[in-house]
Amino acid sequence: MVDDVLVRDIARMVIERAAPQELTIFRPESKAYFKDPQGALEAARKRATAKPKDREVGYGAAELVEVLTPIALAMVGAVVEPLVARFAQSATVRTREAAQAVVRQLFRRSQQGAVGEQGSTEPAELTAGERSWVWHTAHQEAIRLGLDDAQARRLADALIDGLDEQP
Question: How far apart are CA 84 and CA 102, in angstroms?
Answer without folding.
Answer: 8
